[in-house]
Amino acid sequence: MTEQLTVSVLGTGIMGAAMARNLARAGHTVRAWNRTRAKADPLAADGAHVADTPAEAVDSADVVLTVLHDGPATLETMRRAAPALRRGTAWAQSTTAGIEGVAELAGFAREQGLLFYDAPVLGTRQPAEAGRLTVLAAGPAEGRDRVTPVFDAVGARTVWTGEDGATGSATRLKLVANSWVLAATAAAGETLALARALDVAPDGFFDLIAGGPLDMGYLRAKAALILDGRLSPAQFAVTTAAKDARLIVRAGERHGVRLDVAAASAERLERAADLGHGDEDMAAAYYASFDDVPTA
Fold first, then answer.
1. Dihedral sign for Cα atoms in the order 38, 65, 129, 97
2. 221: number of Cβ within 10 Å
């Protein structure tokens, strides 16, 4: 039987709320906090204690799980939590914070005496709600007995990439994976936009590639969101995808690689956000192909 843990979840957006619910369903005590409390309040119905401050949320926690927008937001939140953090507490950092961001967070963990786990997740709203995420994790062996039940509650698989979270090995793998996800999403949107412009029925394209090496379930899933007008609620929001795209471009630049597709994807996503689609699914980058605002 899995030991019951007290888990503090800081950040209850699309991913964090689903992860908090699955932790509660697994029998763990969940203490949740979100900058906008209204987003965390519904978790009370699942048995979570909704805290007013990060410090209140981490009080007595065995594991702190951060699922915030980016590295700076995570660091600021953890600094607010610092007065109540116990030395030796395990911190699973699941924000996609970028390589430099993870190094900065790991430095804070060292200052506070925390066991730091770089633990981004691969997946969107549906697998998060089903507890079927893939957890990419790096961190010390000595605390894995505490974080493993957390990862098991939120994910179907944990991929360990190393024993030092500060190196960002899990985040590096996440950025590589996200570069493919973003490229595929951008390509799906542009393909549908071109089909619209050339008066080609999307079904004709899908019939053409059906069952062949160019066919892929992800393409069909994202295309369906666009064609059926099901971009809300987002599986993965445009604004978050744009942030990740910029982190990918920066990582490439720092390591001498030019990532033209990632840079273009970032621009498309940012343009879609400027058009009012920021909170919609990242497939809404489709609308960045047009000067007007067409119906799908």
1. positive
2. 14
- Average of per-residue pLDDT values in the chain: 96
d(CA 189, CA 194): 9
- C-alpha 247/C-alpha 16 separation (Å) is 20
Tens of pLDDT, residues 225-266:
999 999 999 999 999 999 999 999 999 999 999 999 999 999
Long-range contacts of 271-276 (CB under 8 A, 24+ apart): 272/238, 273/238, 273/239, 273/242
pTM: 0.94
User: Torsions phi, psi of 16, nearest 5?
Assistant: -60, -40
Assess whether the previous peptide bond of 42 is cis (omega < 30° from 0): no
Cα–Cα distance measured from residue 16 to residue 12, given in angstroms and rounded to the nearest whole number: 4
Residue among 95, 243, 61, 8 nearest 105 (CA): 95
Is residue 113 classed exposed, middle or buried when 0-12, 13-18 and 19+ CB atoms within 10 A define those classes? Answer: exposed
Beta-sheet pairing, 49-50 with 121-122: unpaired
Quote the tokens at residue 35: 């900058």
Residues 6 or more apart in contact with residue 65 via CB below 8 angstroms: 7, 8, 9, 10, 16, 19, 23, 92, 94, 150
Residue 1 has pLDDT above 50, yes or no: no
Cα gap 122→96, rounded to integer Å: 10
Residue for token digits 């607010």? 80
With the C-alpha atoms ordered 235, 48, 159, 161, is the resulting torsion angle positive or negative?
A: positive
